[in-house]
Design brief:
single chain; 222 residues; alpha/beta; Glutaredoxin; 2 domains; 6-stranded mixed beta sheet; two-stranded antiparallel ribbon; 8 strands; transmembrane helix; Thioredoxin-like_sf
Length: 222
C-alpha cells in the first residue's frame, strides 16, 4: 500500500505546483498588462487622488440613504430641488446618461442616479422615481447639504437654480469615493463614454502620486 501511494502523492504534489505556477503567471501577466496600458484620459475631470466622501444623512420616498448605500455601486449625483427647473433638468440628464450605457448591462445594473437637495418634497420625489428604478430623489438638512457640496467641490454660490443649462454631475465609485466631475456643458454621450471607460479600468482609480504634467491634464482650469 505504501509503494502504491507514493506515485499518487508525487502526482498530487506536481499538480499543486502546476496550479501554483499558473496562478503566479496569471497574476504577473495581469500586472504586466495593466502596467502597459496608457494613462486613463476622460472628457470629464478625473480626480487623483479620489476624494473620500463624508457620512451621508439622506432621506427619500424609499427610506434613508447613507454612505453604505454607495458601496459596490457607481453613483452619479446631481444637485437640485425636485420642484425647480434646474432639478427637472438634472433628472433628465441623469436618465439620458443611464440610457446611453444600456449596452453595458453590468454597468447599467450597478449605476444609481442620485438627485440631492435640501427640499423635502416626497410627492414630487416619488413621481420622479417612477421614471426609472435606478433613480433616488433625496433630501437632507441645509447644513448637511452644504457639507456634502463642499466635500465634492460643488460651490455654495453656484447659480444652479437660475441657470438654463444642465447641472454638473459628480461620479462616485463603488468604494464611495468621488472620482470624476462632469461639467454641465459636457454632452450626455461623452459622459456615458467616460462612465464606460472608468468602469472598465477601475485599477486606474487607485490613489497614486501623479506628475505635474498628469495633474495639469486631469485638472484643467475651469
Amino acid at each position: 500500500m505504501q509503494r502504491s501511494s507514493r506515485p499518487f502523492i508525487a502526482r498530487l504534489i506536481m499538480a499543486v505546483a502546476a496550479v501554483g505556477l499558473f496562478i503566479v503567471g496569471y497574476q504577473w501577466g495581469n500586472q504586466f498588462q495593466t502596467a502597459q496600458q496608457p494613462p486613463l484620459r476622460i472628457d470629464g475631470v478625473l480626480l487623483r487622488p479620489p476624494v473620500e466622501l463624508p457620512e451621508l444623512d439622506l432621506h427619500g420616498p424609499q427610506g434613508p440613504f447613507s454612505r453604505a448605500d454607495l458601496d459596490a455601486q457607481w453613483s452619479l449625483i446631481a444637485f437640485g430641488s425636485p420642484g425647480s427647473a434646474a432639478g427637472h433638468r438634472g433628472v433628465s440628464r441623469l436618465i439620458e446618461i443611464a440610457n446611453r450605457v444600456a449596452d453595458q448591462p453590468d454597468l447599467r445594473k450597478r449605476l444609481q442616479l442620485l438627485q440631492i437637495s435640501a427640499d423635502d418634497a416626497p410627492t414630487l420625489a416619488r413621481d420622479f422615481e417612477q421614471l426609472t428604478p435606478s433613480l433616488r430623489v433625496l433630501s437632507t438638512p441645509e447644513q448637511r447639504l452644504a457639507e456634502l457640496k463642499t466635500a465634492v467641490g460643488a460651490g455654495q454660490n453656484e447659480p444652479a437654480e437660475a441657470a438654463d443649462g444642465p447641472p454638473p454631475l459628480f461620479l462616485v465609485d463603488p468604494r464611495a469615493r468621488l472620482v470624476a466631475l462632469f461639467a454641465g456643458g459636457q454632452p450626455a454621450a461623452k459622459v456615458a463614454d467616460d462612465l464606460k471607460m472608468l468602469s472598465e479600468r477601475p485599477e486606474a482609480l487607485v490613489a497614486v502620486p501623479e506628475s505635474a504634467d498628469t495633474a495639469a491634464t486631469n485638472h484643467p482650469d475651469q
